[in-house]
Design a protein that fits this description.
The chain is of the alpha/beta class and 177 residues long. It contains 5 helices and 6 strands; from the N terminus they run H-E-H-E-H-E-H-E-H-E-E. The chain has a 6-stranded mixed beta sheet, sandwiched between helices.
Amino acid sequence: MKMNDIFRSEEWRLLLICRHAQSSWDDAAVRDFDRPLNRRGERDAPEMGRRLLQHGVQLDLIITSPAKRALQTARYYADQLAYPLDRLQAEPLVYLASVHQLIGLLETVDPKVRTLLAVGHNPAITNLANMLGGLHIDSIPTGGIVALAFHQPSWQGLAPDTGQLVFVDYPKRPDIA
């Protein structure tokens, strides 16, 4: 599946499943929700945004966990892709969601949205990619992205093994597929 084929047809949806970039554990007193990106995460997130641009991604919507590290990651992606920050949707459900809750949230997305970036946390993010794409990824690395294409006119009816793998990318991967 090529990116240009996806963008030419109204019958395709592209889901970019992203795990937030590397977060800081420097201060044990900071609660999990408030942990920021560490230095590596602040370097990797903009780089992954640039790689999305190299892949030809044209975003319609970003949904992110409101946790600080996920929100920072989403903002870096938005900046690289010229996506308006005021359209970034922080969804509380994403923070501790199960894969089924994430699918339920995705199914509520407007059918006019053809390319959706979802930034969240493991294990739900990896489980979502594995379930929808029929994949066997042990763990999406921090800052990693799995792109799945769905041949359907809306986000309704997302089902196991219906996503076609477009690419997998992550910060330590030197080339893009």
